[in-house]
């Protein structure tokens, strides 16, 4: 006879999703909660835990005893004056904080490169175009500036709403990106730890991402597999490296062969094992207070 899991009740308030472990791309809670030692159920009337991505904690007066979680997929800082626990991009050593990246939703196993099936010659032969850019938010001046600079070397195809120059908007990005040797995968802003799904889009399309945003990106990913603009003094130097790769097929293919993750393995702090351990500890703490 197995021990019955203890139940904890959760509610989502001002959040971009809800608790649904069956989703193909669930949020971090829907993906990890079912793997913990607790039974998690939705209960909007009397939750033990409230999950929100609002900058200000949206607590009803009748729910003041609920523990509060802040989770964001944006470049926002955790606010401990508003929330009990935070889940964000920041690399913080704090028992109340768990670092979560956008790619944590899906799990990073898909980024472990399988060299038994990775045919670099076939991938390279399908690269018929130079570089793509898929952006709708025009608010990042740094990204916009780089796009214009690289365009001076060769046309960069823009398939988003911003600076669209291909006559149509790209909806399904991976098949389109696969045609290109490079992809600009700049974040909306720069902050240590703030690394979204953008670089992952480039990896999964077997292109070489041109990355800017998280200056500590090389902690999680192998920056021999992409152009890390933070490794260069300025964008002109980064573009010179891109030009060199564009004109040297063997050098380009050698970069394609590099593992995307450091040592071709998931760093422990981004692994399911780590998240399950941290979530269990956190939920124990909450359960003991109830």
UniProtKB/TrEMBL annotation:
One of its GO terms (cellular component) is membrane. The keyword Transferase applies. Keywords: Glycosyltransferase, Transferase. Gene3D superfamilies: Glycosyl transferase family 10, C-terminal domain. SUPFAM superfamilies: UDP-Glycosyltransferase/glycogen phosphorylase. InterPro entries: FucT_N, Glyco_tran_10_C, Glyco_trans_10, GT10-like_C_sf. One of its GO terms (molecular function) is alpha-(1->3)-fucosyltransferase activity. Residues 29-102 form the Alpha-(1,3)-fucosyltransferase FucT N-terminal domain. Pfam families: FucT_N (PF18025), Glyco_transf_10 (PF00852). Residues 125-266 form the Fucosyltransferase C-terminal domain. The keyword 4Fe-4S does not apply. Belongs to the glycosyltransferase 10 family. This is Uncharacterized protein. It comes from marine metagenome.
């Amino acid at each position: 006879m197995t021990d019955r899991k203890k139940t904890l009740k959760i509610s989502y308030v001002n959040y971009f999703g809800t608790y649904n472990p069956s989703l193909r791309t669930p949020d971090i809670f829907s993906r990890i909660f079912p793997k913990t030692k607790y039974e998690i159920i939705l209960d909007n009337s009397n939750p033990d835990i409230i999950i929100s991505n609002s900058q200000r904690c949206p607590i009803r007066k009748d729910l003041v005893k609920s523990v509060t979680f802040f989770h964001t997929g944006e470049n926002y800082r955790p606010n401990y004056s508003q929330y009990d626990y935070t889940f964000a991009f920041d690399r913080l050593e704090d028992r109340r904080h768990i670092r979560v990246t956008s790619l944590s939703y899906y799990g990073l196993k898909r980024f472990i490169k399988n060299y038994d099936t990775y045919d670099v010659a076939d991938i390279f032969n399908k690269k018929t175009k130079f570089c793509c850019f898929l952006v709708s938010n025009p608010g990042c001046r740094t990204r916009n500036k780089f796009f214009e600079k690289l365009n001076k070397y060769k046309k960069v195809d823009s398939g988003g709403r911003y600076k669209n120059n291909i006559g149509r908007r790209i909806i399904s990005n991976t098949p389109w990106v696969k045609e290109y040797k490079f992809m600009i995968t700049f974040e909306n802003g720069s902050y240590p730890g703030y690394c979204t799904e953008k670089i992952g889009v480039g990896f999964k399309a077997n292109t070489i991402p041109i990355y800017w945003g998280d200056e500590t990106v090389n902690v999680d990913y192998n920056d021999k597999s992409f152009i890390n603009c933070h490794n260069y003094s300025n964008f002109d130097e980064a573009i010179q490296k891109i030009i060199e790769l564009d004109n040297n097929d063997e050098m380009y293919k050698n970069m394609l062969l590099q593992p995307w993750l450091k040592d071709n393995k998931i760093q422990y702090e981004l692994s399911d094992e780590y998240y399950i351990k941290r979530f269990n500890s956190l939920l124990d703490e909450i359960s003991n207070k109830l």
